[in-house]
Amino acid sequence: MSREMSRQEELFFAQKLAAEPTLAAFLNNQVTNGQNFMQQAAKLYVCERCESGALAHGSGYACPHCGYKSNTRNTRVRDFIKGGYWR
Fold first, then answer.
1. Could you give the number of structural domains in the chain?
2. Where are the alpha helices (DSSP H) in the chain?
3. Is 87 within a domain?
4. Cα(62)–Cα(4) distance, integer angstroms
5. Phi and psi (nearest 5°) for 55?
6. CA 45 to CA 78: how far, in whole Å?
7. I need a surface site. Which of 6, 44, 65, 68 has the fewest CB within 10 A?
8. Which of helix, strand or coil describes residue 39?
9. How far lies 74's CA from each of 37, 63, 69, in Å?
10. What pLDDT is attached to residue 50?
11. Whole-angstrom Cα distance, residue 3 to residue 16?
12. How many whole angstroms separate alpha carbon 77 and alpha carbon 13?
């Protein structure tokens, strides 16, 4: 299902995800191989330290922005924006 980004999603991706080259390369690779950008971006995790997008790593996630590694997977970008944690 295709849809447009809400203004909040657009701002979040512009500020947090697009500024990080590792995440931009990951999302670009996914889209190049036929994946839906919105689905892939919404599935990313949110770093609990710097609130940037983070990539799954082992049983947790790793943040390419601040280098933080967590052993648990908690908040995804989709839930972070819908929950109103980011404004």
1. 1
2. 7-12, 21-32, 37-43, 77-82
3. no
4. 28
5. -105, 145
6. 9
7. 6
8. helix
9. 21, 13, 12
10. 87
11. 21
12. 9
The Cα–Cα gap between 65 and 20 comes to 7
Residue 45 domain boundaries:
7-82
Residue 2 included in any domain: no
Q: Are 72 and 60 in contact (CB under 8 A)?
A: yes
Please report whether residue 41 resides in a domain: yes
Q: Taking CA 81 as the corner, what is the angle to CA 69 and CA 35, rounded to the nearest 5 degrees?
A: 75
Query: pLDDT tens digit string along 14-52?
Result: 777 667 888 888 888 988 999 888 888 888 899 889 888
- The CA distance from 44 to 17, in Å, is 10
Q: Which tokens sit at 65? A: 């922005």
Does the predicted model carry a pTM greater than 0.85? no
Residue type, 66: C
- The rounded distance, in Å, linking the Cα atoms of 22 and 48 is 18
